[in-house]
């Protein structure tokens, strides 16, 4: 049964070209949800289509890539979290927004820990889903900002597309993170932008609020632990390739990137 709220008729703001033409795939077992969301997104300039299962999604991705997937969690057979897990091995994969009637904070954190870029609670409206899509795509369309945290002890801003730190290499233009042993490590869009922020302004303390702003998260709430989840997930990935501490939590201030950062020639 379709449980998305009415989307109303008020006009929406014009989207940037890099966002408005994006290819979106809706994955939901409810035909009503699929029809409502795809119709709304197509009406507003997106290349949207829908499938009803993980199998159908994989067949679709074999034919053509997409920019973002809106993925329902509660589906019969293979559920959304299983599908999400199968997509996370790709370093250049699409953005993923989970859609769920489950309101538990634990479930939301699990989805974010697994690699989702956002998590939307049903019932909601196509208008809100479109706003979340726009936010994720906007983060993908723009390189990470290098603004220093106001009032922090400033270290030199690193101007480069390729960085080296603690045996790792990170090519921000190609969005490629390589571990000390040479393995390519998949990162989500939020992790990519967060790492770019740390590397361009190493040794500055970045507050949760500034990371939320620079990664494009709108309407940040001080009690929202989403940024902490993303930092924790990035920290664990970096810890697997090095025994060194990479990201340190600075009590009541934010996060500090510890390694020496070098600008490399790509």
Structural description of this entry:
With 266 residues, this protein is α/β, with parallel strands linked by helices. The protein has two domains: 17-141, Response regulator (Rossmann fold, 3-Layer(aba) Sandwich), CATH 3.40.50; 162-263, Winged helix-like DNA-binding domain superfamily/Winged helix DNA-binding domain (Arc Repressor Mutant, subunit A), CATH 1.10.10.10. 35% of the residues lie in helices and 19% in strands. The chain has helices at residues 17-20, 31-43, 54-63, 80-87, 105-114, 126-141, 189-200, 208-214, 226-239, and strands at 23-27, 47-51, 68-72, 95-100, 118-121, 162-165, 168-171, 176-178, 184-185, 205-206, 247-250, 254-257, 262-263. Strands 2-1-3-4-5 form a five-stranded parallel β-sheet, sandwiched between helices. It has a five-stranded antiparallel β-sheet with strand order 9-8-7-6-13, with no helix packed on it. α5 (105-114) links the parallel β4 and β5 (118-121). The radius of gyration is 19 Å and the shape is globular. Residues 160-259 bind DNA. InterPro entries: CheY-like_superfamily, OmpR/PhoB-type_DNA-bd, Sig_transdc_resp-reg_C-effctor, Sig_transdc_resp-reg_receiver, WalR-like, WH-like_DNA-bd_sf. This is DNA-binding response regulator. One of its GO terms (molecular function) is phosphorelay response regulator activity.
């Amino acid at each position: 049964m379709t449980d998305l709220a009415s989307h109303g008729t008020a006009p929406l703001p014009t989207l940037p070209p890099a966002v408005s033409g994006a290819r979106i795939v809706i994955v939901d077992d409810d035909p009503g949800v699929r029809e409502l969301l795809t119709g709304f997104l197509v009406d507003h300039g997106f290349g949207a289509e829908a499938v009803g299962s993980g199998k159908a999604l994989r067949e679709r991705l074999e034919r053509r890539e997409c920019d973002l997937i809106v993925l329902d969690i509660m589906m019969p057979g293979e559920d959304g979290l299983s599908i999400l897990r199968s997509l996370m091995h790709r370093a250049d994969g699409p953005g993923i927004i989970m859609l769920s009637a489950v309101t538990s904070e634990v479930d939301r954190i699990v989805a974010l820990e697994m690699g989702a870029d956002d998590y939307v609670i049903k019932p909601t409206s196509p208008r809100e889903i479109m706003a979340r899509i726009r936010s994720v795509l906007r983060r993908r369309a723009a390189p990470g900002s290098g603004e220093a945290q106001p009032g922090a002890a400033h270290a030199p801003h690193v101007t480069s597309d390729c960085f080296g730190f603690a045996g790792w290499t990170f090519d921000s233009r190609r969005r490629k993170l390589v571990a000390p042993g040479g393995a390519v490590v998949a990162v989500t869009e939020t992790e990519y932008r967060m790492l770019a922020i740390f590397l361009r302004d190493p040794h500055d303390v970045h507050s949760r609020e500034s990371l939320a702003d620079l990664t494009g998260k709108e309407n940040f709430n001080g009690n929202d632990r989403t940024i902490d989840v993303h930092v924790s997930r990035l920290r664990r990935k970096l810890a697997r390739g090095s025994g060194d501490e990479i990201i340190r939590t600075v009590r009541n201030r934010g996060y500090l990137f510890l390694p020496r950062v070098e600008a490399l020639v790509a």
